[in-house]
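Q: Sequence in, structure out?
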Amino acid sequence: MLLALLVLFSTVSFTVEKHYCGDILVDVSVFTDAEKCPMEHLEILQKKTCCKHEIDVVLGQNELKFSSFEDLVFSQQFFFTTFTYTFGDFFKSLPKKIIPHKDYSPPNLIADIQVLDQVFII
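A: Exactly. Output:
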């Protein structure tokens, strides 16, 4: 399961968008567009900008190597089959134990005989 998660996270690509107003970081976004600062609309009219938009792309792995059992050398195939055949028996479940007194309910306790007769084990 750990290897499957490792393959999944190594192949996922994503972008990190950062929007700055001057030197101040306004918004950081991973999967959606970064929110722009309200001053940017005024800067478009004045045709000068102090806002900066950075996009960092984290690329995942594109090429995965798929290999089959036939690609292995004979000694590796022999070891793998022997290993799975030998250690496959360790993971079989144990037989269910039969508990004969599972549904037995003890009789109701009317009086504690040891206290009534004043007989105690010391």
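The chain has four helices and three strands.
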